[in-house]
Amino acid sequence: MMIVDALIVSAILFSIGVVGVLTRRNAIILFMCVELMLNAVNLSFVAFAKLHGVSGHVFVILVMTIAAAEAAVGLAIVISVFRHFGAVDLQNLKLLRR
Amino acid sequence: MNTFAPPGALLSALLPEITLLCGALILLLTSAWGGERSSPTRRTARFALVIVGATAVAVVFAWVRGDGWTDDGRLSGDGFRWAIDLILLLGTAGALAIFDTAQGRTRAFPAEVPVLMLLALSGMMIMTAARDLMFMYIGLELMSIAIYVLAGSNRSSARSAEASLKYLLLGAFASGFLLYGIALLYGAVGDTRLAALGAADPSSLYLLGVALLLVGFAFKVGAVPFHLWTPDVYDGAPSPITAFMAACVKTAAFAMILRVMAEGLGPAIEQWHPVVWWLAAATMVIGNVVALAQPNLKRMLAYSGIAHAGYLLVAVLAYSQASASAMVFYLLAYTLATLGAFAVLGIVSEGIDGPVTVDDLAGLWHVRPGLASVLAVCLLAFLGFPIAGGAGFFAKWYVLQAALTSHTPLVVLVVVLVLASVLSAGYYLTTIAAMFNRPRPSESPMPVSTPVMSAAVMLVSVVALLVLGVYPSPAARLAAAGTISNAPQSTGASPTGTTASVPARR
């Protein structure tokens, strides 16, 4: 059935995102992984909307709007970090350890 | 099934939030008007205080009138919402005053900072009011996105930028979990309203959703084992922003968690109760143990904040009307103590490069007895010391009471809480002893005189803490009115729409 397939794909995408956040160290890639997680959730919202009606679609629009706002702010923060450290690798960010 | 409230009803239910948002947007325009040269940051901060005051009036007005409910069950107008709103407004006002002092000294902040604080506050107020997971999520993101920027608002500081990036990445990661939990709950129930979730049969999809939701919540409040971002972010962010995060973000997040647990996740209580039990126990113990080893004051307060998250999780576990009231009282005391402590920290950090350590406070009593006393009272309030710690003692007392009188008395957890508090005396009292007993090192800089705004924050928080410490009735009455309308142990009738919207206090 379509819905179950879509849910499985969404779970796989979400897991890829989580594993990416936990293993990678480049801020931009981490950010992409977070976006992947959010879009995996969007996929499951759309799949569930087939069962439960239109509100699932509305949630997708809301989530996309919020993710866009987060991306705008996030990239601005990445730029400000780059200005200070000359890199966006989390391994270089060691000022805040004691 | 998907009925929506008419626009007029929504407008009146969200009147305080709309007041705040309109004020914030007007402030944003006027702060941009002056241009770069006029440096309008402090003026903006003072206008922001006025807007906070106006919003507080709107909140009291709405509470007295019994507004806030919508017929579609997406917004709540119970006493819990309004009581938490007032605490949030108090916390924001204090943080704005501390910010005003910091700006007067460093001139490091752009004028948008107070505006962003107001926007974050509006997100918090929406989180407190929402009885619908999607609505709650929007409030949460409105708050979080503003806080990510605020953490990095000192653009000349690399530490601030680092804190901001770390908070952004972990915060967005956590909201991913939260959102996936919401999606699964929506899939299991077909609705995101808490009332519908609370009436559903827990399927395995439902339980998975609850688990993911819990992970997201635990990240947001910094509960062990999801606490690692907290000390870095608290340490790196500018002090006034740290005060804002410590006081208000924690308050709003716990208000949200308690409402979701009490109204929405009742069917799965068998499953989440043991998990949250272990979270609470681990958070209390680990937070306090690690805090013992922190010389850096801001990191120490961050770990102490983690421990306090553990105490508050005990109130969540108690899961009754009494626990909602206990939480309101606790958050009030915690907000007051946090504001006082950070106001002092802002003054003594003057002239010190890098983080303030306990050694920098040595002998503070001999040079500035006022500052030392304020910090001592606030730390004792964190500790929950009777009389001298003021309201902090009753805050812990009410939480313990709620835990012991709940359906299944949490005796073991109460023992853990008391032992963890004893442990926390190790660092609170060491700091106080350093201020009062050690001589002032000759090379330590003399603290600057306290500007009037910071002095006002210290005065209000200490007086309020001490007065509530011997006479807690007024705040206890406020807290008793701050109940969640259909938490367990009420008569069981869940309020639908305006019929049950009798204000808890009249």
What does this structure look like?
- The complex is a heterodimer of chains A (about 100) and B (about 500).
- By secondary structure, chain A is mainly α.
- Chain A contains 3 helices and no strands.
- The N and C termini of chain A lie far apart (about 55 Å).
- With about 500 residues, chain B is mainly α.
- At the A-B interface, α1, α2 and α3 of A face α6, α7 and α10 of B.
Estimated helix fraction of chain A: over 70%
Which stretches of chain A are poorly predicted, pLDDT < 50 over at least 5 residues? none
Q: If interface size is counted as residues with C-beta under 8 Å from the partner's C-beta, which chains form the largest one?
A: A-B, 45 and 39 residues
Cα-atom Rg of chain A, whole angstroms?
17 Å
End-to-end gap of chain A: 53 Å
Fraction of residues in β-strands of chain B: under 5%
Output the structural class of chain B: mainly alpha
Number of strands of chain B: 0
Instruction: Give me the Rg of chain B, rounded.
Output: 22 Å
**From the 3D coordinates, which CATH architecture of chain A would you assign?**
Orthogonal Bundle
Tertiary shape of chain B: globular
Q: Tell me which oligomeric state these chains represent.
A: heterodimer
Count of helical regions of chain A: 3
Secondary-structure element order of chain A, N to C: HHH
Percentage of residues in strands of chain A:
under 5%
CATH topology of chain A: Helix Hairpins
Give the topology string of chain B: H per helix, E per strand.
HHHHHHHHHHHHHHHHHHHH
How does the SSE layout of this entry go?
The complex is a heterodimer of chains A (98) and B (506).
Chain A lengths: L1 H22 L3 H26 L2 H31 L13
Helix pairs in contact in A: 1-2, 2-3
Chain B lengths: L6 H7 L1 H19 L7 H25 L13 H28 L5 H18 L3 H19 L6 H32 L4 H5 L5 H18 L7 H8 L2 H26 L4 H24 L4 H22 L2 H28 L15 H4 L1 H15 L7 H14 L6 H27 L14 H19 L2 H9 L25
